[in-house]
Amino acid sequence: xxxxxxxxxxxxxxxxxxxxxxxxxxxxxxxxxxxxxxxxxxxxxxxxxxxxxxxxxxxxxxxxxxxxxxxxxxxxxxxxxxxxxxxxxxxxxxxxxxxxxxxxxxxxxxxxxxxxxxxxxxxxxxxxxxxxxxxxxxxxxxxxxxxxxxxxxxxxxxxxxxxxxxxxxxxxxxxxxxxxxxxxxxxxxxxxxxxxxxxxxxxxxxxxxxxxxxxxxxxxxxxxxxxxxxxxxxxxxxxxxxxxxxxxxxxxxxxxxxxxxxxxxxxxxxxxxxxxxxxxxxxxxxxxxxxxxxxxxxxxxxxxxxxxxxxxxxxxxxxxxxxxxxxxxxxxxxxxxxxxxxxxxxxxxxxxxx
Length: 354
What we know:
The protein has helices spanning 3-18, 27-37, 147-153, 179-195, 217-226, 266-278, 295-300, 327-342, and strands at residues 43-46, 52-56, 64-70, 75-81, 87-92, 104-108, 112-118, 140-142, 159-162, 167-168, 173-176, 203-209, 230-238, 257-260, 284-287, 308-315, 323-326.
């Protein structure tokens, strides 16, 4: 991979990461996707609930290959404004509440307001409480305004996102919020860039899906609309850290994780493995014994059933504001996906049944 491609992917992921797009409120991220994907594709469109579709036509147009990566993020929502002007809140998606205390946030009201998440300081706690993580219902958001001023710009139901810039570590590793799954969106971008240099028989439709974090809703609707012949979901998976103590076998920097199991069509898994070997691309094998919890599950069981695969980017500290990944894994995922598509036969019989 060239340094220019690495830099381009890193910059685009950073742009997506700092953007705000909680499940159900992805429109600003969708605009970024449409702007970046338009030069790489033949047609761009969106549907009535916000999924973004990018079509790259094949030279034979024999079949439809769907790619799916979700662009929504976990976040918070205002549930009460108390008499002192502090905001009470709850989560949208699987926010790790242990990490919320002292975070900077953006409250998206009539205007976007900065705030901080606070709680009772340790000096005022009883000894037994010092050993307990603060619960979300005990936290408040302080925006520094008087109660009257707060009610002028913020109301119950306003969305809240964490405020976090991406941060570069060593060896092409970066940290930030919502890399799950905006890194998957970048993988689709890299794939489309690579396909511009390759011949591929089939149409490719890259879909930036919505509301994955609250029930894979965008994948349900987009796969029903497209009814593709074959699909691949791109998401993240847990990468090992010292505290995982052997429970996680996927490592950062050793290539994308290729899933196998009942959620995955076996011929798609084999073709990914063969493609990686042929092009000397590193991969890791991820056995998934049941539903994957990703867009792949929704796609697989749509209409009469769709042959589905899943590749995942190793990610540390999932659902926190310091999710961490290796950009080389992102680039290798995009390249693997492009070669997988380019090497598909014109007739897909082996992928259309077990």
